[in-house]
Design a protein that fits this description.
elongated, 31% strand
């Protein structure tokens, strides 16, 4: 059963654009989360989208440039997401704008994004000399190292691939892969991600899970939609007692996105970067 989200209209993706360097919040383009969620069906979960920005620059009141990096935290309860190219253009519009200090910049960005996304957005920015965000190797059991699927693979999401382990035991484990690939629903450009899944409940078949995650290879969906579809399919087919799904997508245009969905918490225990981010 392939689930496809409708293509969003009115975005800047795939279009020639002018890079403004004066503050312009009108550049931000919201996209309703319902486009992806209605295609999936049920979506009972908690979570956050972690947007990491590496190319933030502005002028202080004396006209001197400053640089920063850090995270935006967008709650999964927001009715909208922000289209990533529009966010890049919006952040770039501060380049020749006199803002004052980093606190004023954060306040402005939080206000503008909260207004278009419909839920409180938090910033965790630091000037480059002070910014730290740990980079970690993929945790848990790496599926591509443990399993070697035989036979033909499917390259559109197929939840029927998911299965329980033959050993009927209860476990708590972390499973992961660095091999998730999907496509932008507008431009068709490839996106790559590390997926980390932590669950508690009846043990899953690891090869079946690996086959399922590989099946996203030609799927067209935004990062958030892919993460939510994975979460939905795992909950529906395998009914874990608790579940967390984190998709750490690689950088595009100076921005990477890491959606996190959970049965139990609104944010991950801590925020870190995958090796490729």
């Amino acid at each position: 059963m392939t689930v496809r989200m409708p293509e969003p209209k009115g975005t800047l993706l795939g279009k020639e654009t002018t890079y403004e360097n004066r503050y312009d919040p009108s550049l931000l383009t919201p996209i309703p989360r319902s486009l992806g969620r209605d295609a999936i069906g049920r979506h009972e979960f908690r979570g956050v989208d972690v947007w990491r920005l590496y190319e933030i620059t502005w002028l202080d009141l004396e006209g001197r440039p400053h640089y920063a990096a850090g995270e935006l935290l967008v709650p999964a309860t927001s009715p909208n997401i922000v289209e990533s190219k529009s966010l890049k253009l919006y952040v770039g519009s501060f380049t020749q704008t006199r803002v004052g200090d980093l606190a004023a910049l954060c306040e402005t960005i939080e206000r503008d994004l909260t207004a278009i996304l419909g839920a409180p957005v938090k910033t965790r920015f630091a000037e480059l000399a002070d910014w730290t965000c740990p980079v970690e190797k993929t945790p848990g059991i790496l599926l591509e190292r443990e399993t070697d699927p035989k036979g033909e693979l499917t390259f559109e999401p197929e939840p029927a691939l998911l299965a329980f382990s033959e050993e009927e035991k209860s476990v708590e484990e972390t499973l992961s892969t660095d091999q998730l690939r999907s496509l932008c629903p507008v431009t068709g450009q490839p996106d790559h991600a590390t997926v980390v899944i932590r669950y508690r409940g009846r043990a899953w078949d690891h090869e079946a899970l690996y086959r399922y995650l590989l099946s996203y290879r030609l799927h067209r969906g935004f990062h958030e939609q892919c993460c939510e579809q994975i979460f939905h399919d795992l909950m529906t087919k395998l009914s874990p007692e608790s579940l967390e799904v984190r998709c750490l997508f690689t950088r595009r245009g100076g921005i990477d996105i890491s959606p996190f969905r959970s049965t139990d918490r609104d944010e991950p225990e801590r925020i870190w970067r995958a090796m490729r981010q």
